[in-house]
Amino acid sequence: MMNFRYEDYPFELFSVSHVAAMIVSFGCMIGLYLLRNHLSGRGKSVLKWNLVVLLILSEALFQIWYFINDYWDVAINLPLQLCSISLYLCMIMLITKNYRIFEISFFASMTGAVIAIVTPELFFGFPHFRYFQFFIAHLAIVLSCLYMTWIEGYTLTFRSMLRAFIALNLIAVMVFILNKLVGANYMFLSHKPYNASPIDYLGEYPWYLLSLEGVALILFSLLYLPFYLFRNRKSIDEL
After folding, report:
1. 193: closest CA among 215, 174, 171, 208?
2. Phi/psi of residue 93, nearest 5 degrees
3. Is 180 exposed, middle or buried (0-12, 13-18, 19+ CB in 10 A)?
């Protein structure tokens, strides 16, 4: 495991290594889409369990890395960031194929994880362990949701969007209370990320929290739009 000296492995937004990680990530998403109708039952199972293993390993190695370097802290390492919550939800979703978990996972993951890939709060660049762990974890989260949609055929309704939005707000309330108790900043509910991020354009604390509500609704609506359009087109084709 590598050390915590940020200056030895600086991360720069939209640097060559960051752009390379984005290209690989979006390339994997495109590849999954192209493969969606060409996987056998065994192929689907292998892909699903590989995603489960990636999610488990990325989280386990992250926690172990902090622990062996004596940096593990309750204010940092609890799985309460949006993407950490998404990671655990995705593990449960893949294993159980629970539709309600899928609803929450899809909207939370496809907003948080994709934004994290494009504008990561990452302090270690290539070739540090954290660089690879970060992008692999977030890519696995996104691919898990796309797997359920493109491979397993799960779909979403308008009520799915509302349920996910309500669930995310209930989670945020609990995380906000915990932040106050342990002095943490999970889900960025106490202050903005230290790295540059879209949140920088949403006003100062606490007003950016209200702005995030509006942004979440817009992003959730955009994510729901393809399902709505596909459903309408299918209805028209059946007439």
Report:
1. 208
2. -60, -45
3. exposed
